[in-house]
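Re: duplicated header lines in exported structure tokens

Our pipeline writes sequence and tokens for each protein into one text file. With two proteins the header for the second block appears twice in some exports. Here is an export where it did not happen, for reference. First protein block:
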Amino acid sequence: MIDLNHGSGCNYGQGAPRPPIATAVSAAIDSALTARNRAERPRTYVSSSGLGRDCLRQIQFDYLAVPKDEGQEFEPRILRIFEAGHRAEDIVAGWFRIAGFDLRTERPDGRQFGFAAMAGRFKGHIDGCFVSGPVAMDYPALWENKALGASSWKDVVKRGVSIARPVYAAQIALYQAYMDLPNPALFTALNRDTMELHTELVPFDARLAQEMSDRAVGVVQASEADEWLPRAATEPTAVVCRGGMAAGKWHAPCAWAARCWGERR
């Protein structure tokens, strides 16, 4: 049958047009990424990567693997960004190695280096450790790498990681303390858009490390006592709950905001 109105959709007896190849491929990949993420077992420990967040209750929700609010699971786009960030570690590590650095990123059995405390209820895994290299700095030194979008990357370059991203600074301090690496850490930030690399030395902040360690203890103890830790906000409209910039700090939207403030409804 000749379709004299090609593209009009009025060709009776034909099935619905297939989606463009880009849409079909993206949908297949997104579905697979979502399924893989849902199949992962939730963490059963306080992670060093999130202890620098402002809200203690948010950290506690994460530790207890409390189900996130409806619609707050990671979107496929975010899962792609997470994976790209993880792969970026391998890229940057390779650059360091061809430049002559002795960078250790995993144990002989392939596992990451890390620490565990409180009978495994508090853990952290480092990106790597510099043992030696062609640059004059103190060795051994912790290596922490992040892959950032252009805007976040420029902010870190301008203000430094400790001010621009205090969550990362807390993570670094904990690793330096628990891994017995008190020399200044080498922090690198890869611009995902331009592949530019920012590098800075981060001195060991013992006070911050102790504060974050105490936080981990508080989260575990409160959870064992069936007590909820205080929120960082007094209203659900606060930036720490809904997400956004406040006082020069970026807050991701809280994935448990509706559950946390549910008693008001």
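Second protein block, exported in the same file:
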Amino acid sequence: MDFGRLITAMVTPFNEQLQIDWEATGRLIDELIEVQKSDSLVVSGTTGESPTLTEDEKLELFRFSVRRAAGRAKIIAGTGSNDTAHSIHLSKLAEEAGVDGLLLVAPYYNKPNQEGLYLHFKAIAESTKLPVILYNVPGRTVVSLSTSTTLRLAQLPNVVATKECASIEQITELVAGAPEGFLVYSGDDGITLPTVAVGGYGIISVASHVVGAEMKQMIETFLEGRFAEAAQLNAKLFPVFKGLFQCPHPVPNPVAVKHALAVKGLNVGGVRLPLAPATPEEKDFVAALFN
């Protein structure tokens, strides 16, 4: 399974009542595939506000996204949680819904040790035939998958990739030690180019909602050996990468990118509590990124 170089971690559009807006969801999927050049979409990940989506909402999102994408892009279901048994349950239902792969975040709050992390991911991977992408994001989960644990999991036949948010050093170590066919993605837009430069495969991105085509061009330019041009593209994009997370004070993803989509003419609604909507100051800051 090739999920491509550019994967977008998709927001979940809401209406004024903060229920899923299916018309807007369809428009967003089309935009991300046709205009922003996403190879795959992660549905109901952290960017999709998975903590506040019900199981029924997640399953309908999986089914709807598979139908709407219609083979134009792969659909990856976010089915990870801090409850191994529930992740297994949801992963099986996602497989029945027809998704192409799973993204499994490291279990948050419980603070398992490395053996617990290994056994957690191993149990979920062995419960499904779908390809699995690990997701290491210690800034959100408190725990961090070590390089050795990730590479141990990479020996499992359907664990095919990792989304790494620890550091470029860890990405470099993973690339160096990875078995053939195991791919390393950055989960941090700001180090997309450095990740590809050290042998990573690509990016699982938030900024690609609004600058995906340019990000795809940057990656392809680098892979074609036009390094100076790729660096220039990175310099042009970097204020967007940085701004969407600073905004002008740090804001939780996906608050800023939802407003960025509205600035671009694609209204995807607000965010569910406990996330707070962007302030007028934050909205002005985001809008200025695209002027």
